[in-house]
Amino acid sequence: MRFPLRSMAWIAFAALSCLRPAPSLAQPPGTPLPNGIRGGSELVPEQGVTIRSYRFAETGEELPYSVFVSSKVEHGKKAPLIIALRGYTGTTLTFVRGTTVDLAEQGGYILVGPIGYNNRAGFGVPPRPRTTAPNANVPAPPPQPAPPIVGGTAETDPLLATEYSEKDVMNVLARVRSELDVDDRRIYLMGHSQGGSGARHLAEKYADIWAAVALLAPAPFGDEPNADSKILHVPILITVGDKDSLLPSAKMFAEQLKALNAQVEYREFAGLDHGTIILGSQPEIFAFFAKHMKTSSTR
Fold this sequence. Notes:
Elements: H1 2-16, E1 49-56, E2 61-69, E3 79-85, H2 98-107, E4 110-114, H3 158-179, E5 182-192, H4 194-205, E6 212-216, E7 236-241, H5 247-259, E8 264-269, H6 277-280, H7 282-290
């Protein structure tokens, strides 16, 4: 009976997760974007973007990740790298498309989108249980068709899947660093929504790797930073749209970091919502990354 119980746990996680602002694709096709921002598909890789895979040892599955390498990257010359973490039910292309690819091309970056084991798992952040009971007087919304699972499906335990999610990101990072000429002083991390929460976790746990980190409308994390938090030593940019319900929690986290004298910048974007913040804030994110470089490599 072990498999059915674990399957039920996974279903409960998907249903009750607080990270549901993106019921399907992070940015549905046709969503208006700010002037100068180019959209792109989260399903079909554009020119120059490849979807690769590797064997995940723990389950024996092939896990996908997307890669874009700027034409300005030269063999034998170290290039900056950005690891980009999708939101809940996103894909490896959530970031690796549109304006993000354009800016990576212009700046000579390597841009990589891991799946994080699969597109539900939380990059090392355990699923949060529902804190309030359903209101019997309020009718439940009609059920929505769940988008397909992208990535691994063998592990159905939510806690183990999110552990694998973190491991997948670090595996992909290691693969890219071994295959391409990555400048270890310029490795950057960004994530949206669930990926923003995951980026916050990875910034804390692996603080010595990242030259800077961008959190885009990060989902509530739960733990408050303190004077011993390693994230205080990593330059952080928090971006959120003023049409996003996660604005209060993003702003509060920025204020908590500022109170601890962290290296944090906070940006609110007029007219952007939970989906459009992904591409809409990319010019500011790339400008932020360009300002930061580690003084020594961290292989």
